[in-house]
Amino acid sequence: MIRNDQLRACVFLTVATLCWGLNANFAKLAVGEISPMQVVTFRWLGVVLILLIFARDNIQRDWPILRRHLPFLALMGGCGFTLFNALFYVAGHHTSAINIGILQGALPVFVLVGSFIAFGQRIGALQALGVSLTLLGVIIVATGGSLQQLSDFSINRGDFFMLIACLIYAVYSLGLSKGPRVTPLGLFAVMAFVAWLVSLPLVAVETWIIGWQSPTAKGWIIVSLITLLPSLLAQLFFIFGVKLIGPARAGTFYNLVPVFASIFAVVILREVFESYHALSLMLVLGGIWLSEKGKPKLVG
User: Fold this and answer.
1) What is the Cα–Cα distance from 283 to 131, expressed in whole angstroms?
2) Distance CA 189, CA 57 (A)
3) Running DSSP on this structure, what letter comes out for residue 269?
4) Whole-number Å distance between alpha carbons of 174 and 176
5) What are the CA-CA distances from residue 10 to residues 16, 66, 249, 258, 261 (Å)?
6) Would you tell me the crossing angle of helices 107-119 and 157-176 to the nearest 10 degrees?
7) DSSP assignment, residue 252?
8) Number of C-beta neighbours around residue 292 at 10 A
9) Which residues contact 182 (CB under 8 A, 6 or more apart)?
10) Are 174 and 117 in contact (CB under 8 A)?
């Protein structure tokens, strides 16, 4: 039974990270087909409608507790879902899917640093080395491997948006550890609804600035895939994986996101995988591995 649970968890978590890796490619495919804020709005509207159908019992059962934490959940959903996604899809207009995937892959280290700043969580020597390696990898990919850009403090606009998005998501991840104890589906449903509400002013501002541009047929297909795969399927599979093997072991699977994003970018988008991409990917993954290995052992 244990082996079966581990095998199912591996399948669930691998599929989840595969979907998140695809999302970096969806961000590029959406350019010219559907605007960034339209993607965010229609994505979360689709998730809300699906959850209202399939997770209604969870929402009703958890509502008395969820209602007492609405301000907190509004902040979490607005930041972790809406703002992160808005910056994520805007970044797709200015940088490559490979860059998006690698920068997104650094999230576990951002969370580790955030835990130190917010909660005083101790960082060991190996973890500090891992953080340093990951940040070096981020700098390399953000500057295109160019020492000139580094000396000029020049960074691609899309990479900058993606870094800000990752910082926002790291804060969201830390905030979730203080969230109410309810079913994951109930919690996810409320935050998804908030994400959709918060996205409405953003799409209104976007329409005011550039005008309403109706999504193309390809745009509707892309946002449908985003709704079903990274938004819904990946989230649910990650929840199932965490239930089977716990959050610590499940979190290590997130290292696969930049790998899948890079593979899909080369195969689907025909992007060129440069030598500096390989170096930064090794540094990011190596840094995360050291950070995980250097975690203080729990006693008792």
Assistant:
1) 10
2) 11
3) S
4) 5
5) 10, 31, 10, 17, 18
6) 50
7) G
8) 18
9) 62, 65, 66
10) no
- Say if residues 40 and 84 touch (Cβ distance below 8 Å): no
What region does 291 belong to: left with phi over 0, alpha with psi -120 to 50, or beta? Answer: alpha
Residue 99 and residue 159: Cα distance in Å, rounded?
Answer: 7
Question: Could you give the CA distance from residue 138 to residue 95 in angstroms, rounded to a whole number?
Answer: 14
**Residue range 77-123, pLDDT digits in tens:** 898 889 999 999 999 999 889 888 888 877 777 777 777 787 777 77
CA–CA separation, 71 vs 162, rounded Å?
Answer: 26
CA-based nearest residue to 101, from 165, 192, 46, 168: 165
Q: Summarize pLDDT for 220-262 with one digit per residue, the tens.
A: 999 999 999 998 898 888 877 877 776 656 666 777 888 888 8
- Average pLDDT on 126-147 reads 74
* Helices and strands: H and E segment counts in the chain: 16, 0
Q: Compute the distance between CA of residue 207 and CA of residue 200 in angstroms, rounded to an integer.
A: 11
Residues 6+ apart with CB under 8 A from 282: 137
- Look-up: residue for tokens 């495919």? 29
| pTM beyond 0.85 | no
* 168-174: average pLDDT: 83
What CA dihedral angle connects 30, 33, 38 and 41, to 10 degrees? -60
3-state secondary structure at position 145: coil
Query: How far is Cα of residue 279 from the mean position of the Cα atoms in its chain?
Result: 22
Tokens 């440069």 correspond to 274
Number of Cβ atoms within 10 Å of the Cβ of 296: 10
| CA dist 130 → 105, 106, 119, 171, 251 (Å) | 13, 11, 19, 20, 16
